[in-house]
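Dear colleague,

Following up on Tuesday's group meeting, I ran the structure prediction for the two-component complex that the binding team flagged. I've pasted the input sequences exactly as they went in, so you can double-check that nothing got truncated or mislabelled along the way. The structure tokens for the whole assembly follow below. Feel free to forward this to whoever is handling the docking comparison.

Inputs:
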Amino acid sequence: MSFYLAIIGTKDNAVYELEFGTYRQGGDGRPRFSADMKQLCPFIVHSSLDILEEMQWNTSVMHLKVIDKFYNYLISSYITAGNIKFLLLHETRADDVIRQFFMDLYDLYVKTLMSPFYSVDQPITSAVFDQRVKMLAKKYL
Amino acid sequence: MSRTPRQIGEEVWKTRVEKVNAELVTLTYGSVVAQLCKDFGNDYIQVNEQLDKMGYNIGIRLIEDFLARANTSRCRTFKDTAEIISKVGFKIFLNITPTIGNWSQDNKQFTLVFDENPLADFVELPDDGKAVNELWYSNILCGVLRGALEMV
């Protein structure tokens, strides 16, 4: 069971991305995408941005759940108050768990924003952030 | 009776100090340092110097405010000075009490260790290899101490 997480900025630029696998049921956390899928992940996720932008004006909640499907892969999304989009490509439905994951990720993102040397839409390159996202993935997914 | 520096500090903090939002201070100071870094093109030595100068200007004025609020008597020894700085000075202005340590042989030098630094909450230094070694993020505090102590 593998996941692909992407954080997209306000100008549709990539801010952060991570591939990981599930830690449940003896999984070891490594993603198991086939070679084709590996190349397609960013494409699929970015193509769902149009749907996301259409939907965001119709709802007032931040967690938009599943917004798109690609064969047997689902794409869930969460939009933040600053119009930053979190997109997660996954295989099985798990709305509640993914919502909690996104909320904690939002928390982490706000803490990153608080640093004076980080400006909005800048790619996140901090190893600490990376490590914390992986810990969150381990905790929820 | 407020005799020990710690008690003086606590009492003044509770009664005679107006409070301001800590996040406002943190974010303002952060923007100042980030803007200085941009303006000097990441020349961290220059940035450190500027922070020290800014601190110095603050310190020469801050000492009057401090003496007006704390109303302490003249320090007889350098050790008294250290206690007053740590338990009254920092307490009044930042609500922290750094620990004093590492007195030198001739009792002319000591260190202040900060367990928590409200100026640097959530700050991550830029990842360009030199910032971690060269930038003194809270250098304004050094300037403030230098300015304040020069006036007395």
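Strands of chain B lie at 99-101, 111-113.

Cheers,
M.
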